[in-house]
Design goal:
alpha+beta, cytidine deaminase activity, six-stranded mixed beta sheet, binds tetrahydrodeoxyuridine, 4 helices, Cytidine Deaminase, domain 2
């Protein structure tokens, strides 16, 4: 993989956030992931009246990874619809480790970091 075009990824995540279904929280979240074959997949949060069954943006992005050819994530960013940086929740960090591995890069308030740093000693079967 060549260098990651973070600005392209951030813009894609911000655009995806606009598609969120979030009548309960009002928080629009978008996720964008660069895949190991160079394609880019996005997701947005899809809430649920039960609250707990809400799909985070990373979850729908994971579905897109699988539905559009599979592969692995190499770099991910999450953004609000105003472009603000968002961090994946704990469940979604597990998702990113499983689908991107510990070397997958994540955009964080402290710079670009690996998923190994963001979820140390992750659960493995
Ligand atoms: N949310 C995400 O989309 N990703 C995360 O990693 C954390 C939370 C969404 C879920 C819910 O629709 C809203 O943010 C407020 O929790």
């Amino acid at each position: 993989m060549g260098t990651v075009e973070w600005d392209t990824l951030r813009e894609a995540a911000t655009r995806a956030a606009a598609d969120a279904y979030c009548p309960y929280s009002g928080l629009r979240v978008g996720a964008a992931g660069l895949c190991d074959d160079g394609r880019l997949v996005v997701g947005c949060n899809v809430e649920n009246g039960s609250y707990g069954l809400t799909l985070c943006a990373e979850c729908t992005m994971a579905g897109q990874l699988r539905l559009t050819g599979g592969g692995r994530f190499v770099a991910v960013t999450c953004r609000g619809d105003g472009g603000e940086l968002m961090m994946p929740c704990g469940r979604c960090r597990q998702l990113l480790v499983e689908l991107g591995g510990p070397e997958c890069l994540l955009d964080t308030p402290n710079g670009i970091r690996t998923m190994r740093e963001m979820l140390p000693d992750a659960f493995e079967l």
